[in-house]
Amino acid sequence: MEKSGMSKSVSLDAYMVRRPVKVEQNATILDAVAVIIEQQVSGVCVVDDNDKLVGVLSELDCLRAIVEKIYQKGEPDAGYVHEVMTANVETNRADEDIVSVAASMLDHKHRRRPIVDGDRLIGQVTCRQLLSAIKSFV
């Protein structure tokens, strides 16, 4: 039997990463870089002390901060995550439709989307998970 595409609704819950890589907002940029390199990811979710999502940080954010500090001071001390992260991040709930979320991510040119329950981080979906979901239906 041939698969007929993603005609039925599939929720994010089935494909989201349940333990996304994260750093605390008061971590240094260099500490965040170490996490990004060690975990081999292009970005991380940023949380406060209570695991509340407060932003996202990409490897480009880190690189920009380090290069700017080198040009300003001549040293790679890049400051803190909360100074360069993207705050006011678009989020989704685990029960939302994966195709709608994929379309929204494309519209906004996002590579990742945090999944929250209220304001608490419970997961993340990236382009890789979306591609995996689509591949399983085509």
Describe the structure in brief.
It is built from five helices and five strands; from the N terminus they run E-H-E-E-H-H-H-E-E-H.
Q: What is the strand arrangement across the widest sheet?
A: 1-2-3
Q: Give the class from helix and strand content and strand pairing.
A: alpha+beta
Distance between the termini: 12 Å
At the fourth CATH level, what is the homologous superfamily?
CBS-domain
Q: How many individual helices?
A: 5
Overall strand count: 5
Total separate domains = 1
Write the layout of secondary structure elements.
Blueprint: E1 22-24, H1 29-39, E2 43-47, E3 53-58, H2 59-73, H3 81-84, H4 98-108, E4 112-117, E5 120-126, H5 127-135
Helix pairs in contact: 1-2
What does this molecule look like?
The chain is an alpha+beta fold. The protein has a single domain (12-135), classed as CBS-domain (Roll), CATH 3.10.580. Helices cover 36% and strands 20% of the residues. It is built from five helices and five strands; from the N terminus they run βαββαααββα. It has helices at residues 29-39, 59-73, 81-84, 98-108, 127-135, and strands spanning 22-24, 43-47, 53-58, 112-117, 120-126. A three-stranded mixed β-sheet has the order 1-2-3. Helix 1 packs antiparallel against helix 2 (59-73). The termini are close together. The model has no long low-confidence stretch (mean pLDDT 88).
Labels describing this entry:
138 residues, alpha+beta, CBS-domain, 3-stranded mixed sheet, elongated
